[in-house]
């Protein structure tokens, strides 16, 4: 049984998606993980539009893992879109995975509502360690409204 619900992974790099999914499995994350590969699909998923209209099949996530380096509109565009929708945004946590960015980029990410900015590790073992910490805090330790004691 999952503690919180669904995780939405937003990443366009299929190799990274496979590594992240494998790593989440390795650290025993039991939550279902839905993956989208673009800003447009993330907006549709979070809005419940098109193929994502069935909330039983595509529930709102409790956690969004967002790669900032998306093609086209990009990860910052998704953060801006979410920032403009506080009613939607309050339902989940956004954890960013990105390259080591300049201070201004990190500052902007937090100003737009990201709760965490993690550097995507290049080595798989380091990624698993980062995912373990993500699980320890955001899934195991963090409490959400409606969590049972």
Descriptive report:
This protein has 149 residues and is of the alpha/beta class. The protein has a single domain (7-141), classed as Rossmann fold (3-Layer(aba) Sandwich), CATH 3.40.50.2300. It is 42% helix and 15% strand. It contains six helices and five strands; from the N terminus they run βαβαβααβαβα. The protein has helices at 14-26, 39-47, 74-83, 86-89, 103-111, 124-141, and strands spanning 7-10, 33-36, 63-67, 93-98, 116-119. A five-stranded parallel β-sheet has the order 2-1-3-4-5. Helix 5 links the parallel strand 4 and strand 5. The longest helix has 18 residues, at 124-141. The mean pLDDT is 91.
Name some characteristics of this structure.
single chain, 149 residues, alpha/beta, Rossmann fold, five-stranded parallel β-sheet, 6 helices, 42% helix
Give a brief description:
The protein is an alpha/beta fold and 149 residues long. The protein has one domain (7-141): Rossmann fold (3-Layer(aba) Sandwich), CATH 3.40.50.2300.
- Regarding CATH, which class? Alpha Beta
Mean pLDDT over the residues? 91
Largest sheet: 5 strands, parallel
Radius of gyration: 14 Å
Q: CATH topology, what is it called? A: Rossmann fold
Structural class: alpha/beta
- Secondary-structure arrangement, i.e. CATH architecture: 3-Layer(aba) Sandwich
Spell out the CATH superfamily: Response regulator
What's the number of helices? 6
Uncertain segments are none
The strands making up the biggest β-sheet line up spatially as 2-1-3-4-5
Number of strands: 5
Distance between the amino and carboxyl termini = 15 Å
